[in-house]
Amino acid sequence: MRKIYFILILLPVFYSCKKSTSNDVLPDPRLYVYIAGAETNGSVNVAKYWENGQATILTDGTKDAWASSIAIAGGDIYVAGQESNGTNYIAKYWKNNQAVPLTDGTSYAAATSIAVTGSDIYVSGYEGNAATYWKNNQAVPLTDGNQSAVANSIAIAGNDVYVAGEEFNGYFTVAKYWKNGQETLLTDGTKFSYAKSIAAAGSDVYVAGYEGGIAKYWKNGQPVSLTDSTKQSYAFSIVVVGSDVYVAGYEINGSVYTATYWKNGQATPLIEATRDTWVESIAVVDSRIYATGRVYNGFVYAAKYWKNGQAISLTDGLKDAYGTGIAVVLQ
User: Fold this and answer.
1) pLDDT recorded at residue 275
2) What is the CATH number of the domain that holds 106?
């Protein structure tokens, strides 16, 4: 079975005024923090999202499911993910908690990232071996399916559709991105490499990922390493604000996974290096830095998010739970 990575790039979103029902302490009531993820229920994962810490369940817990990405547009909440049919996973998204399947369940599929612009809904993922995105539920294959490939992240800029992912070359996975279906290779295929998140800013294209166990991002195809080869590191999410580039991921310090974000290449750990911690998505709004992921508490993984480095729990730590995608809106 294919190992799935669920990574999100925060995309431009629209919002409507909502009253928060959370008891989370947010000093600015204009901010709404939305996080996609999952929490275990017995032997399966239940897809859900949180709004300012208040959970909304998307699946009934009878079959394994994940939520991997979230976007807010026009007062509507869109969540991308997948749910098992007992044999394969079905790529789908939920609009205001109502499921919309993107595949028929005859092959293994997943939805990894979602973007909404105007009346158009874009979702990246894969179906079978083919990296794919869907526009308004219509599939657009990016690869021919002869080799395993995944589309991990999608961003829309004007009339252009940008998708990041990777494709197996028979020996290694090759990081790449597609602009309107035209691929650009980011690595030479001599090491395992992954493109996990994409952002377009003006005429520049930014992609976060890793190559040979080193976290990096690419600006217009040119690599920028975030760590050296003395320790393994991984980048999963990127956002660009003005001239600042924010990347989220983790470093392995000894045997401990340490959630980290980098601002213009400068690393900031998000938790003390004594517990395994992952961060999978980052957002920057009104000079505030948000990230979401999970922390191992010695028994299970607890879903959390961080605001300017301060951890805020989403679950009680009694069952495995994961924060996989984040969107923040400011009224």
Assistant:
1) 83
2) 2.120.10.30
The predicted pLDDT at position 328 comes to 97
The answer to whether 177 and 207 have CB atoms below 8 angstroms apart is yes
Which ranges of the chain have pLDDT less than 70? 1-29, 272-273
Range of the domain at 81: 31-330
Counting the structural domains of the chain, the total is 1
- Count of Cβ atoms closer than 10 Å to residue 81 Cβ: 35
Q: What is the reported pLDDT for 272?
A: 66
The encoded tokens of residue 3 equal 């190992």
160 contact partners, CB below 8 Å, separation of at least 6: 179, 180, 200
Read off the pTM. Answer: 0.91
Question: Rounded CA gap, 301 and 141, in Å?
Answer: 35
CB 179 within 8 A of CB 133: no
pLDDT of residue 66: 96
Q: What is the pLDDT of residues 142-182, one digit of tens each?
A: 999 999 999 999 999 999 999 999 999 999 999 999 999 99
In a domain, 227, yes or no: yes
Q: What size, in residues, is the chain? A: 331
- To the nearest 5 percent, what fractions of the chain are helix, strand and coil? 0, 60, 40
Rounded to whole angstroms, how far apart are CA atoms 178 and 216?
Answer: 18
Q: What are phi and psi of 222, to 5 degrees?
A: -95, 125
Decide if 17 is inside a domain.
no
Q: Give me the half-sphere count of Cα atoms (radius 13 Å) on the Cβ side of residue 275.
A: 14
Q: Please give the Cα distance from 212 to 15 (Å, whole number).
A: 39
- Report the relative pairing of strands 256-263 and 266-269 from DSSP bridges: antiparallel
What is the separation of C-alpha 177 from the centre of its chain, rounded to a whole number of angstroms?
16
Is 120 inside any structural domain? yes
Is residue 23 in a domain? no
